[in-house]
Amino acid sequence: MIDATHDPALRSWVESANGHPHFPIQNLPLGIFSPPGGGAPRGGVAIGDRILDLPAAAALLIGEAAQAAAAAGAPTLNALFALGAGPRRALRAQLSELLAEGSPARARVEPLLHAAADCALHLPARIGDYTDFYVGIHHATNIGKVFRPDNPLLPNYKYVPIGYHGRASSVRVSGTPVRRPSGQLKLPDSEAPVFGPCRRLDYELEVGVWIGPGNELGEPIPVGEADSHVAGFCLLNDWSARDIQAWEYQPLGPFLAKNFGSTISPWVITPEALAPFRIAQPARPEGDPAPLPYLLDDADQRAGAFDIGLEVFLETPGLRERGLPPHRLSASNTRHMYWTVAQMVAHHASNGCDLHPGDLLGSGTISAPDEAGCGSLLETTKGGTRPVELESGETRRFLEDGDAVILRARAENPGFVAIGFGECRATVLPAR
Amino acid sequence: MIDATHDPALRSWVESANGHPHFPIQNLPLGIFSPPGGGAPRGGVAIGDRILDLPAAAALLIGEAAQAAAAAGAPTLNALFALGAGPRRALRAQLSELLAEGSPARARVEPLLHAAADCALHLPARIGDYTDFYVGIHHATNIGKVFRPDNPLLPNYKYVPIGYHGRASSVRVSGTPVRRPSGQLKLPDSEAPVFGPCRRLDYELEVGVWIGPGNELGEPIPVGEADSHVAGFCLLNDWSARDIQAWEYQPLGPFLAKNFGSTISPWVITPEALAPFRIAQPARPEGDPAPLPYLLDDADQRAGAFDIGLEVFLETPGLRERGLPPHRLSASNTRHMYWTVAQMVAHHASNGCDLHPGDLLGSGTISAPDEAGCGSLLETTKGGTRPVELESGETRRFLEDGDAVILRARAENPGFVAIGFGECRATVLPAR
């Protein structure tokens, strides 16, 4: 739903917001921050290079918006997520007015702003369960080709939004380093595995979905109602140890190859902020089966997908030393998701599985169809056989210690102000 | 460590405890209960057919035991689990004295007991993450035979304690019915899947492991210290929709086939209570590789396994109507676990994955090598081809609506008083 909060003419009295690459007044993402000096973590809204203290702002709001801001007084956004779309929309509408140029409330709002650079950002929610999907069809095809060149996609792929359970405890917010894992590695020249540091450390470019209101165990969520269970979106780096994965994953799927850490961006981009960037679900290639009825909803087909540009950058010690900018590894887009978010949610709950506010869903790696749009090094370097060459003279088959991976997302649509997701960044620490 | 709390001559002034099949004074398992009339959930200890209110008993305890009992004032045992073995042992020792025949404290303790039959039992902890292993080697072999008759175990099985992440949100305590899930089913005579109620609903006989003190992300747990991270044990029924599973599980493992519900027994059987039932890790068959060093600990090899008898009973509407007892489907034993609990924990954290108090690990299905010891109907009925015949005249290939599955466990060792785990029971409700 496009409303006054999306007006491209809308400007904020927070000067840094106007033209800000991520957080103009049209975005207003939610997060959890500690103010300078180290107060208790609480809800906040990013506006330009500032963060608005949400619980402190509750007194300036009315009705459902005040209720939402008060719920953000907790150290996680779970309670706010649980309130659903009504209070979240009311909050957006009133904050948009308070922060707009000419707002008579400016003098009362300004003291509630903190310089973002001086704040600490935290995980936005206590993650009950984390589920990772596999809806990036070009990624699934690229990976499948390694094993089945003639028939890369398994027979279930175009019927089932494939997903599996990930590890909730090891999800960390952007900026937290990730430790290179050790594990069992089966080297090609050896009968038995050895235990040692991962040699094929990789990233995966994903979008994360925050669940808002949940469902009772045993009660499916119809696909037409699924969007009302979504609280927002983030970037997600699903770090992957390819050598550990190759040896351990049969028959029950990835485990230690993934659960040593996942990194998410701190800001929750709301469905409201992303309304101008909705697109029709891209047409399925001719011959692909129609989604089964429980996954098919007209409105979702018409406007359930997103046009959001995604980028991955690699920052190596060599680039840093030489003062060179991070190397862009990949450019992709959420339009390469074979299933919509509503289909992911409806499928997840189709057997009665109960979702809860603060659950996190990952999209799976989103690769573009072209070689410059691979969402992992495994794809970009063809399993490590075609190293990436960097301006520093370095090469990379997989990630090395000291490397930082940076994910970015930006939604653009002519006639609207573009918004960004902020950054999802982490640096690789050497193995213990 | 065997101490005075295990003395077989020890009797309780709670008469029902003496000779109780599950909860003699030598057991003293921990749980969360609501007293009759519906007070707030709190920690309790089962003794015979009574439950001792733990926070109420804190005033009768001293030192670490009092600390443990006070921690049990919360509606979950997470805080008690986090305290680790010292306070848990002190609690056991002092409760054993308070409840023993001749205790001078009897008059003060007796008012703190409730009739278990009048109490509600809850999940003992808030489960952060739930991980399911696959350490029942006879189960893995039975399942593998379906796909690879000549080479049923995959090459990694004897090196890797295979595990995967399950769904924490849908774990329920014994007594909560389980709703038959619907899902995508690929019928043999059809090209495309259909969506409908599961036709091949199954149980899985497992033991659950409660995690006590956790580890920091990035910091592995050495196998020699792994037992100190375990708070206790329960029974676990990992309900499985075999038809959904067969179609969805490639390439990332089981998802909707499992996450519609898991049932656990309410009582946490402590490592202390199980000390008399420790056995050496059964010798690996000749030719099996030795565990890699990070999974190998002398003390664990000598006494890291358990001798606990496991049983599965099926109670059908027909048996109930005719007043017939539940049918015993299976008898197995924890000695059929190929990996010890310490090996499971050490492996889980070997890549730095962080475990937390209240995390739940499942063993995976524990089948005995013989046909009467299969831990699932898939095995017992050979994939539904050899139905089980019941005294009521009913037959079962898989579970039908109204069926109840009951898991029981009992640890016996001559010279000690046998203890039980209580019951893990749930009834199948028809699909929505």
From TrEMBL, chains A, B:
EC numbers: 3.7.1.2
UniProt GO molecular function: fumarylacetoacetase activity; metal ion binding
UniProt: Ca(2+) binding residues: D132, E204, E206, D238
Domain Fumarylacetoacetase N-terminal: 26-124
SUPFAM superfamilies with a match to the protein in the record: FAH (SSF56529), Fumarylacetoacetate hydrolase, FAH, N-terminal domain (SSF63433)
One GO BP annotation of this record: L-phenylalanine catabolic process
Uppermost EC category: hydrolase
Ranges where the Fumarylacetoacetase-like C-terminal domain occurs: 157-428
Keyword entries, A-Z: Calcium, Hydrolase, Magnesium, Metal-binding, Phenylalanine catabolism, Tyrosine catabolism
Residues that bind Mg(2+): D238, K258, S262
Pathway(s) annotated for this protein in UniProt: Amino-acid degradation; L-phenylalanine degradation; acetoacetate and fumarate from L-phenylalanine: step 6/6
InterPro entries for this protein: Fumarylacetoacetase, Fumarylacetoacetase-like_C, Fumarylacetoacetase_C_sf, Fumarylacetoacetase_N, Fumarylacetoacetase_N_sf
Active site: H139 (proton acceptor)
Cofactors that this protein relies on: Mg(2+); Ca(2+)
Binding site for substrate: Y134, R148, Q245, Y249, T365
Gene3D superfamilies: Fumarylacetoacetase, N-terminal domain, Fumarylacetoacetase-like, C-terminal domain
Protein name, entry field: fumarylacetoacetase
Species this chain originates from: Roseomonas acroporae
